[in-house]
Amino acid sequence: MILDSFKLDGRVALVTGAARGLGQGIALGLAEAGASIALLDRAALDETYAQIAALGRRCHTLVRDLGGTTPETARAIVAECVAALGRLDILVNNAGIIRRAPALEFSSDDWEAVLSINLSAAFYLSQATARHFVAAGQGGKIINLASMLSFQGGMSVPAYTAAKSGLAGLTRALANEWGAQGINVNAIAPGYMATEVTAAIRADPARERAVLGRIPAGRWGEPADLKGAVVFLASDAAAYLHGAIVPVDGGWLAW
């Protein structure tokens, strides 16, 4: 049955940045499809944990700050997931931060912080996860959270744009290398979502009107809007999808 190929029963997913917002919505979607979930965030994970436990899924929490992630710390995270939940099948690189300032004034500290979490940590976790998949003789799924700024330049967010553009390129590069080993690497590019990242835009009436005026769906996205895409990419239904950047944007890029 085709619908069975979307089920994630018996699988384990690691979702970074899972305390709230998009990461929380993604984790809940994967759990609703049957997966057990390892939640990682530097913030408290109690709320997301409770919602997943209420679904009857196993859950493990890792309170970590991904700033300064190294290959060694990434390996330790993967090892803890496997030890706690018995396996690892899906990695969702969702964690990210944003810093806003004109490029002429953008500080080196902000540049390094954004690139460290949004791009370097995603690479090291992908590398550690893929090494686990290969050593275990299994395939697996790696899903990156790209952005509209993987396609566009934005304003006053040079580090975020560089990181998200880099993450789109990294998705394609890793898909090329690992596809033959049964590892699917793809990305979701959320549109303008009602989360902390867009709080500054939504607080500016003129900018909010301009954004909403361009979204064919006529509304801001919500974390739940990503559930279908992430479950698809994590499932057997997407077995032949490699290196795709899937916009979930209410039609923003179609404008």
Write a short abstract of this structure.
The chain has eight helices and seven strands.
Throw out a few tags for this protein.
single chain; 255 residues; alpha/beta; Rossmann fold; 7-stranded parallel sheet; 7 strands; 42% helix
Explain this structure.
The chain is 42% helix and 15% strand. It has 255 residues and is an alpha/beta fold. The protein has one domain (2-248): Rossmann fold (3-Layer(aba) Sandwich). It has a seven-stranded parallel β-sheet, with helices on both faces. Strand 1, helix 1 (21-32) and strand 2 (36-41) form a beta-alpha-beta unit. The longest helix is centred in the middle third of the chain and has 28 residues, at 108-135. The N and C termini lie far apart (36 Å). The model has no long low-confidence stretch (mean pLDDT 97).
Low-confidence stretches: none
CATH superfamily: NAD(P)-binding Rossmann-like Domain
How many helical stretches?
Answer: 8
Strand fraction equals 5-15%
Question: How many strand segments?
Answer: 7
- Quickly give the CATH architecture: 3-Layer(aba) Sandwich
* Domains (count): 1
Structural class: alpha/beta
Cα radius of gyration in angstroms: 17 Å
Q: Per CATH, what is the topology? A: Rossmann fold
The largest sheet has its strands arranged as 3-2-1-4-5-6-7
**Topology as H/E string?**
EHEHEHEHEHEHHHE
Mean pLDDT: 97
